[in-house]
């Protein structure tokens, strides 16, 4: 499935570490804040975040997170990716080796420059 996503919002949802079968939204981007998504996600306790970020993100390592779902919301339809979230921190769960499901058939086989939350920090992408 290839296609261009335009006007995308990012929502990160964790499988409930208490019940294990429910999803809990822990992050969502908000348009027009002037704050980058990576700055909001990376911000520690007490730092002003202009996106919708659950304080549980800062406790990630102490939570029993099983899976993490990313929802890319778009007017052309939502796209979901699911990652293995076990034994991860708030950055390490997002990796190609932890990807469990994706709508894109070639995501595991096609070359990538970066597959991480931090990405290419020198070029801010």
The dominant shape is globular
Q: Any idea how many domains?
A: 1
Beta-strand content bin? 15-25%
Q: Given the structure, what is the number of helices?
A: 1
Low-confidence stretches: 1-8
Question: What letter string, H or E per element, gives the SSE order?
Answer: EEHEEEE
Helix content: under 10%
Keywords: Signal
Task: Give a brief rundown of this model.
The chain is mainly beta.
Keywords for this entry:
six-stranded antiparallel β-sheet; mainly beta; 125 residues; signal
Tell me what you see in this structure.
The chain is mainly beta and 125 residues long. It has one domain. Helices cover 5% and strands 25% of the residues. The protein contains 1 helix and 6 strands. A 6-stranded antiparallel sheet has the order 3-2-1-4-5-6, with no helix packed on it. Residues 1-8 have low confidence and may be disordered. Keywords: Signal.
Secondary-structure map:
Layout: E1 9-15, E2 23-28, H1 37-42, E3 52-53, E4 67-73, E5 79-84, E6 99-101
Antiparallel strand pairs: 1-2, 1-4, 2-3, 4-5, 5-6
């Amino acid at each position: 499935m290839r296609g261009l996503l335009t006007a995308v919002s990012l929502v990160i949802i964790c499988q409930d570490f208490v019940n294990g079968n429910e999803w809990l939204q822990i992050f969502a981007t908000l348009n027009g804040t002037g704050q980058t998504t990576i700055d909001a996600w990376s911000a520690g306790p007490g730092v002003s975040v202009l996106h919708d970020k659950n304080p549980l993100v800062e406790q990630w390592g102490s939570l029993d997170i099983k899976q993490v779902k990313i929802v890319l919301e778009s007017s052309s339809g939502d796209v979901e990716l699911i990652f293995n979230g076990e034994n991860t921190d708030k950055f390490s769960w997002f990796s190609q080796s932890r990807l469990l499901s994706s709508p894109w058939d070639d995501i595991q086989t096609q070359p990538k420059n970066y597959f991480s939350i931090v990405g290419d920090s020198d070029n801010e992408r």
